[in-house]
Amino acid sequence: MMAAESSAMDNHPADEHLETLAFDSSSPASAAASTDPLLHPPPSPSSTSSHPPAADAVVHEDGEADFVPVLPTPDAPVISREPSPEFYQITVSDPRKHEEAATGAAGVIPGSGSYFSYLVTTRIADGGKFCVRRRFRDVVALADRLAATHRGLFVPARPDKSILEGHVMQRHDFVNQRCVSLQRYLCRVAAHPTVGRSADFHTFLTEPSGIPTSEGESPRYNPAIAAAMPTAVTTPTTPAKGGRDFFGMFKDLKQTVTNGLMAVRPPPVEEETDAKFIAHKAKLEELQQQLTATSLQADSLVKAHDDLKTTTALLGMTFLKLAKFEKGQSICSSQRSRAADITNFANAAVKVSRSQGRLDAEIVKHLDTIHKYLETMTSVHNAFTDRSNALLNIQGLSTDLFTLHSRVAKLESVSSRGIDQERSRYLKVAELKETIRTAEDAKSHARKEYELIKENNMNEIKRFNKEIRQDLVGMMKGFVTNQVAYSDQIASIWAKIAEETKGYADRSS
To answer: Residue 96, SS3?
Structure first.
């Protein structure tokens, strides 16, 4: 499969970024071979101290075991892979409840008159630290501003508000989950090479006042910026002429019939003609389907490993109870020896279950890359929507210009019935031509913005393809390395207990 990809890339050098998961062929093979953990696996856990720590299970005779699997804590700081050089680490913690200022009648939902604020701590590379408090609507305002000022870029999507979920879940769990999601969002924004360096994001992290909050919570709309953008041009209307002018009516009817019999050229249609972008878009849509299916499989794998860990722990606890019973009923040395062997086996099972718990945590950490890129696909769709909306804006302006030019042509083709009508017709034509100039300026501005969005799209696609290739390969390497390391550790535990109890196998044979 990789050979086919490399040959395809050689045959089409212009489409070097088309293959979403193609490996980087620019790196020397010798360097890759010397640093690849799959080709050079780490030392055995028994001969190095860098392997996963052994779990010294403490098993009590009453059947209780200190079994606490090691899982990643939600409050652990998330450090972005490519953070802005100014922002080194961002954490969200310390949620506090505040009461809203009284604005009238109480809300329909109990507790709707209160909100939570979160402490956003930003550590920078030179050792400095900024601490500001933000509420969720501040994050909404930041997301709206970033989306409006970075059209065409893969701006990370903010977490949803989920009002209903906040009242269904336990309040403590909901607030902690929101802390984790907000921290994850801010770290993803900081990791973006362009958005992470924006002035709005810097203000959000460092200024106590922050940025003004928007009225609504539409994710990709900013009223101030939308008002400044050119809109469709409206043509001046002609007031109705009072009284009866039968001669004029017949003359206008004759001109209308003449214009209707003439072939009318439809307005130009603006369509997406960039074949490379269309191919990239199709590839990314296919990638999203693959990520969705892989995400479901990853969840099933994690659940299966968790079930195995739970079963192993229960096995150890069961044998521990059996050892306690054997020890209580022993009347000879052979029974006491068998009880000691059962206890050793129970301890080994508990140690294995602990190792499996730590392995599960590593699996979740590595496979989270799949979920991260599945979330990124929302940003990809938003960027492509910006491109479609920009093209639709150009199409609307082109239609308005066609209508204006058609009206001018009709007015110029109609003969006047007097000096007053000639003057009125001249003023209308002049007014329409001024409107045409305004519409052409708006279309030129819209065309430039569309070209900028196109450039942003292609730059982001190239960056996305490069990063996902590196991240997925790194995920697989880390996943396999941990599987090998923990499997060796678990195998050594079972090998030791098998050596201690091999006498039972000899006697049975």
So the answer is: strand
Residue 472: strand, helix, or coil = helix
d(CA 108, CA 111): 9
Count of Cβ atoms closer than 10 Å to residue 289 Cβ: 10
H/E element, 479: helix 419-500
Q: Identity (one letter) of the amino acid at 416? A: S
The C-alpha atoms of residue 410 and residue 72 are separated, in whole angstroms, by 73
CA distance linking residue 87 with residue 90, whole number of Å: 7
Closest of 415, 395, 407 to residue 436, by C-alpha: 407
* Dist CA 382 CA 194 (whole Å): 16
Query: Which residues, 6 or more positions from 414, have their beta carbon under 8 angstroms from its beta carbon?
Result: 252, 255, 425
Query: Both ends of the chain: CA-CA distance in Å?
Result: 49
Q: How high is the pLDDT of residue 120?
A: 92
Query: In angstroms, rounded to a whole number, what is the distance separating the alpha carbons of residues 189 and 185?
Result: 6
251 burial class (0-12, 13-18, 19+ CB within 10 angstroms)? middle
pLDDT (tens digit, 9 = 90+) per residue, 99-157? Answer: 876 554 444 445 557 788 899 999 887 778 889 999 898 999 999 999 999 999 999 99
DSSP per residue, 153-176: S-PPPPPP--HHHHHHS-HHHHHH
Structure tokens of 317? 């606890």
- The span from the CA of 59 to the CA of 452, in Å, is 65
**N residues, the chain:** 509
Q: By the 8 A CB rule, do 413 and 255 touch?
A: yes
Q: In what order do the strands lie in the sheet with 129-135?
A: 87-99, 114-124, 129-135
